[in-house]
Amino acid sequence: MTVTNTNDSGSPAAPQAWSEKLDEPVQSILRAHGIEYRAHDRVTAHFHSVPLSAGFNKPRTNLLLRLVHPTAAYAGSRAFVDSDLVYVAGDPRIKAAMAGVLCEQNWKLLSTPRLSRTLARALAEVLDLLRSPLSKPVCEALGVVPHAAGGVEQPPLPPLLASLASQIPAEEANSAAETCFRGEQATDVAVTFTRPVEPFCSLIFAADHGMGCDHLALAAAHQLMQAGIVFRVIRLSGAAIVAGFWTQTEAEGNLRKVLAEAAVVARRHATLLILQDLDFLVKGPVGRALLSRAMDDGLRFIGVLREAAALEELKEDAGLLRRFQLVEVAPPEDVDVTTSLAHLARRSGIPVAPAALCAAVNLARKDSAAGPAGALALLGAAIAEAAWHGRPEVLPDDVFSAHQKQVRREEKRF
């Protein structure tokens, strides 16, 4: 198997090595079981042909351990296994761990709490989780009880946050990454999140609608999940936080509670918050002060503005504005939109004619209100129509038909 440095896929550089090398007694156990151990660099260790319990689709897997240290808050080790490894038994802890994201070069990131910074202990924790026959001798050699033995499932969200937020499946973030108009900006947003000092919260906005701001946030989340920096992504709308209250004071009180819960979850459980519709939270001085305080307390999130005009309200609070890394999403070139449409077409399960991609781009360009994201929606509608009616291929006529239906719906609406 080819081993890749996780930094190549956008994760932050790791500025230090393992706190300890792999103990000789542990290496002796590995050799006795025919396991090859290689240190690729000072933060990456590869274990070849690690034995597994009977609940997997194959008896052995490659195991990659990597020390990730973007900031002190997220220090720890991450574990990667073969991408084709499947768990077929019923242990809920292992099922949760195997739900991690697929990464480059045939690796899958295990969705676990942050593992030990010590290589041998991190290895022991993963072996225990996977119920490897090596778990007992390695743990005995180290004289440790792995902390992963307590379980790997993410704890439930606090009640208020759970009632307002939704968890984003890894598949949704991966799909957004493939169709994102601005992959390089997604990397910038992900890197910003790992900074040791402010600003570590990005604020994404665009002058026009349909530029893919939400897609950009999800694409950045995907990179952070691939890097093993976060294991859960939740999406929360500013409108949902303040909706339903009679007075602004009540809404601000609810905001204070939500931010407090979000800060605890983010710090303890490697959870990323995508805060959409941030416009609703910066209209008054109290809301802006609450956001500043939450960020000072360590809350890291990716914010998205619905209207670029909200920046004018933010400018009234220079202290809050400097805590954000502003990320403006400009209209992409047609070639970028076409590339994103091609990704969508490949995932659709039905052949899509190249001319259909061009038709979606051209029709979306004529509709200034739809923006580039409208091209994705238009092609998606054409794919769904063609699949529903059993057509063998999506043609330009399917795209034109979907566009006409959309126009008629808009005419009836207004």
Q: In words, what does this structure look like?
A:
- This protein has 414 residues and is of the alpha/beta class.
- The protein folds into three domains: 6-150, no CATH class; 159-328, P-loop containing nucleotide triphosphate hydrolases (Rossmann fold, 3-Layer(aba) Sandwich), CATH 3.40.50; 334-413, Helicase, Ruva Protein, domain 3 (Orthogonal Bundle), CATH 1.10.8.
- 44% of the residues lie in helices and 15% in strands.
- The chain has helices at 24-32, 92-97, 119-129, 135-142, 159-164, 170-179, 183-193, 213-226, 238-242, 248-269, 285-296, 310-314, 318-321, 334-347, 354-366, 373-388, 396-413, and strands at residues 36-41, 44-51, 60-68, 76-82, 102-103, 107-109, 166-167, 201-205, 232-237, 271-276, 301-304, 324-328.
- It has a six-stranded antiparallel beta sheet, covered by helices on one side. A six-stranded mixed beta sheet has the order 7-9-10-11-8-12, sandwiched between helices.
- Strand 10, helix 11 (285-296) and strand 11 form a beta-alpha-beta unit.
- Helix 6 packs across helix 8 (213-226) and helix 10 packs parallel to helix 11.
- It starts with 23 loop residues before the first helix and ends with a helix.
- Residues 1-15 and 147-152 have low confidence and may be disordered.
